[in-house]
Amino acid sequence: MRKFIRVKVLLAGACIVTAVTAWGQPAPSPEGQTSGSLDLAVVYNPLIANVVSGNSFWMQGGSVQVHAQFWHGLGVVADVSGLHTASAGGSSGVGLDMVTATFGPRYTWSPAHRRYAVFGQALVGEANGMNSVFPNPGGANESANSLALYVGGGVNLRLKDHLALRALEADWLRTQMPNATTNVQNNLRVGAGLIYRFK
């Protein structure tokens, strides 16, 4: 299963690099957005998780994001995130580890002669829950997989030519892992981190 996730992430990264290479390095757009850029972000991501109605808890983790912008602010991003908690709500003492691998479009708006950029994104992929209890009609499993859907955005602040700050990122994450009730989880992921831009 972990090998399968790595293969998907490597394929997504190869697609991004191919897209950037194909589009080349066109001149800046009128809005001051450069086309054909590639960046790598490392982001700290606390997440408030909702397993069942009225039962929420915090998870800690981070993500690595590869973003390729290829035409007037439009681009694609691959996001691999890992999260952990020692207690998935209440006093059960049951922990949870979760890895998500997602991919999708991102639009970035950057006003001319400004140091900030605002982006919005919609990513889809897979969530893998481990080291926990996932009830099902036949008993319970310690791992589960489901669809992962991220919708959100954030703000980047340029620091130097190749370095930027992810000042804020906020994403709604929907997963569908077994939980003996609705089998749906709605989570809020926030984050901040550093971005390195390749030119």
Can you lay out the helices and strands and say which pair or pack?
Elements: H1 2-23, E1 37-44, E2 47-52, E3 55-71, E4 74-85, E5 96-109, E6 116-130, E7 134-136, E8 139-141, E9 144-158, E10 163-175, E11 185-198
Antiparallel strand pairs: 1-3, 1-11, 2-3, 2-11, 3-4, 4-5, 5-6, 6-9, 7-8, 9-10, 10-11
Q: What does this molecule look like?
A:
By secondary structure, this protein is mainly β. The protein has a single domain (2-198), classed as Porin (Beta Barrel), CATH 2.40.160.20. 11% of the residues lie in helices and 60% in strands. The chain has one helix at residues 2-23, and strands at residues 37-44, 47-52, 55-71, 74-85, 96-109, 116-130, 134-136, 139-141, 144-158, 163-175, 185-198. Strands 1, 2, 3, 4, 5, 6, 9, 10 and 11 form a nine-stranded antiparallel sheet that branches. Strands 7-8 form a two-stranded antiparallel ribbon. The radius of gyration is 18 Å and the shape is elongated.
Stretches where pLDDT is under 50 for at least 5 consecutive residues are 17-34
What share of the residues does DSSP label as strand, in percent?
over 45%
Overall shape: elongated
The amount of helix comes to: 10-25%
Which class in CATH terms? Mainly Beta
Can you name the CATH architecture?
Answer: Beta Barrel
Helical stretch tally: 1
- Mean pLDDT equals 83
- The SSE order reads HEEEEEEEEEEE
Task: Please count the beta strands (DSSP E, at least 2 residues each).
Answer: 11
| Whole-number tally of structural domains | 1
Instruction: Tell me the span between the first and last alpha carbons.
Output: 34 Å
Report on the biggest sheet: 9 strands, antiparallel
Rg over alpha carbons: 18 Å
